[in-house]
């Protein structure tokens, strides 16, 4: 009965489409400290909800906690970068991220790589069963793939925000918080550069993408290896 209800509800939902990718950097936005983000994020209603087994959870991690990424980004972008958030979206033990491709993962692997989440936003129960979730992800591959990946304008945070909205039937994290403290961190990274410097955006983008992705994948691979080793011990 529950599966039938999920399918019926999902079919009745209006289709949710991928937001358009920005092409221009936002001016004068971003650069918040982690402490400022925490102070606001803790007041967001969906950050206070207990988590059920089929709830859609958008988790926010600080991938600059190693003390190396934020200074590297600050140097590359000519602005002070205090922290850098990374979002994932999960239902139960299944979780997904996006770094050039949609990556199935687990909450424990991400926590090993990035530390415990700064926030866990509960968007409510998934309107899809596991097969339905797989179909949603399959359709999203058209907009979230290696060609479409852009560190500034279509990254893991845009993906998790979008996926959470789809799986929950339209619910989302408070927009002001997301825009001021998460999404805009990347969309405003070059706001301090003069206009003539922005003509070099593509070169800068490739440089910064390499800095972040290499840093993250190093932690990611280490976490995967640790989880694989731990599973050997328990079996």
TrEMBL record:
InterPro entries recorded for this chain? PPPDE_dom, PPPDE_sf
Q: Name one GO molecular function term.
A: peptidase activity
Annotated coiled-coil segments of the chain? none
All copies of domain PPPDE, residue ranges: 54-180
Alphabetically sorted, this entry's keywords are:
Hydrolase, Protease
Q: Output the GO biological process annotations, alphabetical, semicolon-separated.
A: proteolysis
- Give the family per the record: Belongs to the DeSI family.
> What is the protein name given in its UniProt record?
PPPDE domain-containing protein
Give the organism, scientific name.
Pelagomonas calceolata
